[in-house]
Amino acid sequence: MTFDAFRRRWWLFVLLPTIGLVIAALSSRMSHAEYQSMVTLQLNPAAKSPFLPFSPQAAESEALVASYREVLRSRAFAETLVQRLNLPLAPEALARSITTVPVANTNILRLIVTAARPDDAQQLAQAIAEFFVSDTVSSQGSPSGASSRLAEMEETARSYPARIEALRQQRDRLDQAAARGDTSRLTELNNLDTRLTSMETSYANLLVEINRARSSMNTASILDSATPGVATGTMPLSRALPFGLAIGVGLAIGLTFLLERFDDAIRTPAQVAAVAGQPPLAVVGRVPSSRQPIVLQDPALPADRRASALEAFRLLRTNVQLAGLDRSRRTILITSAYHGEGKTFIACNLALAHAQAGDRVLLVDADLRAPSLHMIFNLSNATGYLDALSAVDPVCGTRYQAPNGKSWTEAMFARATATAVSDGRPLPGIVPSGVENLSLLLAGPAPHDPAAVLAAPANLRLVEELSVRWDLVIFDTTPILPVADTRTLALAADTVLVVVRPSVSSRTAVAETLAILRQPGRPHLEVVLNDFETARLPAHGASWSPSPSQ
């Protein structure tokens, strides 16, 4: 897939990213933000030896982490927490707001609390952690009375540092007085030293007892206090917009690849060559703003555009001539797979290019079902193809109804041995086009059965008669696939040009058309790529966007 595929579907890269941005903005505005705060806890199981502060066994630490993780997520813990902290939450809501994440192969547990506001999340996380450490852990698995005794010792230990510091300050003042020569208070100084030593010893012993008591039970401590609340469950607008844009662009790229994968339209000369097995005989480009099918004479078209178009059809004319070097090619039939591919446009301008080169050209409107040349050249369609055919087979003089009551086509088949007109008399139905060297055979009134008319032996003789009288005869015909008219008429032509239009012609239809025209006994076959973009052509390539897409 080339850059052209993305360029053709540029609207996807506008539409989908825009939709992505809009959805991202709406989602960011309408979503309700939640905030999370995290506390890091360290859990230690009780020691098996009084000489070790905590158990050295990793398995026991991990088991303790797993156990307390379930405790933190339990409804019973939530109910106790709501009562003790007097929280305005239901226990079920509090339990849902608590998430625990153990750190693998450690005794570390991360407690995450979710709330509607960042401050609430942080304060609640810290309160839950402190309650868990001070009340819940200390009461789990400890000997009877150990928790209360430990609490008393810890309360006593907290008072020692202040008392010790007060005695030290008092002793320092007496010590400074003695150093200045005041010996009256030496006895008091000695007593203070004795009391301070005794208090420091008691404090050290108390710390040992506290550590020993703690080693007999599971413990927990807060390693990191609650973090500030962080938004979760939603994305801020500054991040949502780039994300929506990226999603939109990604969808556009993916959809482009998907559409290109299933795209059956022909778009480039290379694709024409792949389907036809040969490059197109000519590439005719697009001239914007032209409404005149005979683009070479369009007064509304700028002179440079008209000159470019003329050069393109001169190239087509030359290539047609080069394609016929092996034998004379005096009749050219121009068709397409379906309507809308520009066959009438190619027929008109190719005929004009040959006429301007001095060839006597007859342009035949053989599209008897939907004729258009009379409208293009602003002529009456009262007479035309059937009048010329009547000069070859007199039975056709009655046009639609034979004297014996049969349809004129049935009568024509019965009189297929009529003598062709070759004595130089003017053929009825031939009219001047208003362009030098260019004559027209219009379609005239529509017959009852166009396919039978064009398949009749008398019609083949008419084609031969026309090729004798003009240097070049160009037939503008019906599309190949919808009706059978052109399939038999093509047998009488020397060359058949199949017109293909980018983004309109499908590979399947073109391949089927070429398969029909390449059957044994068929004429020389070429493909013309019409309405190709100017930017892809050499400087001399013409382009046009045909208004009557016949």
Q: How would you describe the overall organization of this protein?
A:
The protein has 550 residues and is an alpha/beta fold. Among the domains are: 3-31 and 234-261, no CATH class; 151-216; 269-381 and 432-536, Rossmann fold (3-Layer(aba) Sandwich), CATH 3.40.50. 48% of the residues lie in helices and 14% in strands. The chain has helices spanning 3-8, 10-30, 58-72, 75-85, 91-97, 118-137, 146-179, 186-215, 237-261, 269-276, 303-323, 343-356, 373-376, 385-392, 408-414, 450-455, 457-469, 485-489, 507-517; strands at 34-44, 98-102, 108-115, 219-224, 230-232, 282-285, 331-336, 361-365, 430-435, 438-441, 472-476, 495-500, 524-532. The strands form two sheets. An eight-stranded mixed beta sheet has the order 6-13-12-7-11-8-10-9, with helices on both faces. Strands 1, 2, 3, 4 and 5 form a five-stranded antiparallel beta sheet that branches. The chain is rod-shaped.
Write down the oligomeric state: single chain
Biggest β-sheet description? 8 strands, mixed
Strand order of the largest sheet: 6-13-12-7-11-8-10-9
Computed structural class: alpha/beta
Distance between the termini: 31 Å
Question: How many helical stretches?
Answer: 19
Output the CATH homologous superfamily of one domain: P-loop containing nucleotide triphosphate hydrolases
Task: Provide mean pLDDT, rounded.
Answer: 79
Shape, please? Answer: rod-shaped
Low-confidence stretches: 47-56, 397-420, 535-550
In the CATH hierarchy, the architecture of one domain is 3-Layer(aba) Sandwich
**What is the CATH class name of one domain?**
Alpha Beta
